Amino acid sequence: MDTSREYDLYSQGFKRDAYRTFARLREREPVLHQLTLDASTEGWFVSRYQDVEAALRDDTRLVRDPALAGVHFPTSPLDELLNSHMLARDGEDHRRLRSLVQQAFTPKRVAALRPQVQRYADELLDAVIPRGHMDLVADFAFPLPTSVILAMLGVPVDDRDRFRAWSNALITPVLDAATADEAVRLLTQFTDYLRELFAERRRAPQDDLLSGLLAAEEAGDRLSEDELFSTMVLLIVAGHETTVNLIANSVLALHRNPDQRARLERALAAGDERAMPRAVEELLRYDGSVERALVRWAAEDVEIAGKRIPRGDGVILILGSANHDPQRFDHPERLDLERDPNPHLGFGKGAHYCLGAPLARLEADVALTTLLRRLPGLRVDVPDEELSYRPLPMFKALEALPVAWDAAGSEPA
Q1: Residue 76: what pLDDT?
Q2: Could you tell me which of 16, 3, 25, 70 has the C-alpha nearest to residue 298?
Q3: Whole-angstrom distance, CA of residue 30 vs CA of residue 338
Q4: pLDDT value for 217
Q5: Domains (ranges, CATH) in the chain?
């Protein structure tokens, strides 16, 4: 643990037992002021449900664009190209960008994707079932949502493995010159790839979201070129990264709670159509993929739980802690797949509520149902102490999850 910080919120040890640390925060320092990951910038960490929910809804005083709070960071042309998306904007700019893509993610349109998601899930399992084991992250949880979002956007699904390196470069903190140089190299590759794809779609538009975004750009003031690039990057990364981790975390949680898994399997066998959607909500709460919301900036002096946060300071809302607050959830430390109601904050709240929530829910539903149906005896195949997490402050993301099953009893698709 870095001795300059009162609470360790970054190490591998923390990732393994984050909820114990969050409990101490809620009790002792619900609005904690300490150094952030770079060990030089200070921030405010908010951990109680009531405060986190209120802050998520306060998009006037707590903003995503640091310039609105009087904070200006040095930027490069690449930064501008990659950070002109809706999550970095507020007010009318945010609403304008969001309106361009939200129709593709309505519950009705997403529901129509179920056969395609199911086909991808079955194809991925067909490839590994004879082996009797796999890395759930690399062989299933990553390619499933990545294939879906790339197909929606009109990006060749065969290129999905290239997007893993590019996505990692976008979400991994840059803390030294070597990491920065490698990130610039990978992200330049990413933007070059997209430029070629945009040129191809301008020549021959298709029935996909990219062609729609290009048409909006050409229509005038709806979308600038930087916004087009940035929106595509956001949709590709956000469209798979969170679901990859949700699927992996959920399988691990079910493995560690065999009684809950058995009840879920009985409900599914009995034809309870609400069993898996309800379970997904609890898995989002219990060990969701997004540990913290993106940094907000105080556009004016703000008071949270008696602490004064000066204008210009960064505020980090810990969703994982809020979702385990006993003031909001009975026995939050328990996995209860029949918990109802379940007002978790896994998708945020307010103006920046996750646009892809319907798609993430569908993908998790199909993925977990298919895994339980087709892989009898599915189990984590390594001891807990051998599991490790990616060094991502925002996400709860396993590096790998080796699993095995009873191959002889596996169901065909």
Answers
A1: 87
A2: 70
A3: 29
A4: 76
A5: 12-409 (1.10.630.10)
